[in-house]
Specification:
63% of the residues lie in helices and 2% in strands. It has helices spanning 8-25, 51-66, 76-98, 116-131, 136-157, 169-178, 199-218, 222-243, 256-279, 287-292, 296-312, 324-363; strands at 314-317, 320-323. It has a two-stranded antiparallel ribbon with strand order 1-2. A hairpin with a 2-residue loop joins strand 1 (314-317) and strand 2. Helix 1 packs antiparallel against helix 12 and helix 5 (136-157) packs antiparallel against helix 7 (199-218).
């Protein structure tokens, strides 16, 4: 097998994405967060809404290089590899949802089945089976078909407002297949932003990343490659923005306009990093993000386990019992920065802490892969 080469700009982009993920996932208080660090309530796109599609985009970009060792040939070994990687990431997501495992109040009738890792697993698995079989031109056609098909499905399958929280086909499909109590309830109704049906367009996000990875993999001129990626990104993000007027940009539904808009922005950022790193050779200034770019799925799991753990530990605060998460925020960070800035400092504290863990792993060449 041929060993894949690593592209530094992709690693750095992944590190930037993971760093932003840590910040937006760990505020001291969800009631005190700067608006750009919150998801859009429904339609729309904030910087926070870019994190997940960026990660899937980078999954696709990395696949272009990772599949070199399979010579882009759909062998039995390849399919086994894809199956077990998909399975392991999906099960990791299930276990993360189930943690802590020893609980007296377990009610499996309300256990959430889906989640971020589950979507990554499914989007990776489906994309891999497509990518190994079809060439670039065919993948562009598949991408176009997926996005148009999903748009039509939403339009035909919805009732009333086809893009409304309670009336979209994504929610109906997941309730039919999984049962409503196995879905996320954070929107006030049972609706899963990582639902099964909305995985269809998320495959499109991976494909866009794969196409950009292909440009990097085959280029002989990084100047020309960065220019082409930037132009492509500008065009599809503009198309997604214009499509938004009839099909709202919406992360929770992962609408087709959202795929193009976020995929375009990701392409532009990758083009900028390619220019800075591969053309201008500004590698050293990005070293912090290189560390974050390693063990990314492990860090996602670690951060989830850490948060769930400290939420279960209680301390006394002014005569009231509060969890360790709230205790740390109130006793250390609020006195320093107040409610709002203290919440941000809490997130930055976690950013530094997780970076130090990854730095230790990086220096000891510890890579945990699923």
């Amino acid at each position: 097998m041929s060993e894949p080469r690593r592209i530094y700009s992709i690693d750095i982009f992944r590190g930037i994405t993971i760093a932003l993920m840590v910040i937006v996932n760990n505020p001291g208080s969800w009631s005190n967060v700067y608006p750009p660090l919150l998801h859009a309530k429904w339609h729309g796109c904030t910087p926070t809404d870019l994190v997940f599609p960026f990660f899937l985009f980078l999954v696709g970009a990395s696949m272009r290089f990772a599949f070199v060792k399979w010579h882009y040939f759909p062998s039995i070994k390849f399919y086994k590899h894809v199956f077990w990687r998909t399975f392991s990431i999906f099960i990791a997501g299930i276990l993360l949802n189930a943690y802590p495992f020893i609980r007296q109040d377990w009610d499996w009738s309300t256990f959430r089945i889906l989640g971020v890792l589950q979507r990554i697993a499914l989007a990776y698995g489906i994309s891999a089976f497509l990518i190994i079989r079809y060439d670039f031109k065919q993948m562009v056609k598949i991408l176009t078909g997926l996005l148009i098909f999903y748009w039509g499905l939403m339009w035909i399958g919805g009732t009333g407002d086809p893009y409304g929280l309670e009336t979209n086909i994504v929610r109906k499909f997941d309730i039919l297949l999984l049962g409503e109590k196995h879905l996320y309830s954070g929107f006030g109704v049972y609706f899963d932003p990582e639902g099964l049906l909305s995985t269809i367009p998320s495959v499109g996000t991976v494909i866009i990343g794969y196409l950009m990875g292909g440009m990097l993999h085959t280029t002989k001129n990084y100047n020309d490659c960065a220019r082409r990626m930037a132009i492509f990104g500008l065009l599809i993000s503009l198309l997604g923005f214009l499509w938004n007027f009839i099909l709202p940009i919406n992360k929770a539904l992962w609408t087709s306009s959202y795929v193009l808009f976020t995929g375009g922005i990701a392409s532009i950022i990758l083009a900028g990093l390619t220019y800075a790193i591969d053309i201008k050779k500004w590698k050293s200034i990005f070293w912090v993000f290189e560390v974050f770019g390693t063990n990314s799925i492990f860090l996602f799991i670690l951060s989830g386990l850490w948060t769930k753990t400290i939420l279960k530990i209680n301390f006394d605060l002014n005569g009231s019992s509060v969890n360790a998460y709230h205790y740390l925020y109130k006793t250390i960070f609020v006195p320093i920065g107040g409610d709002l800035n203290g919440s941000l400092l809490f997130a930055l504290f976690h950013l530094i802490g997780f970076w130090l863990v990854l730095l230790w792993m990086y220096k000891n060449e510890i890579n945990i892969k699923l």
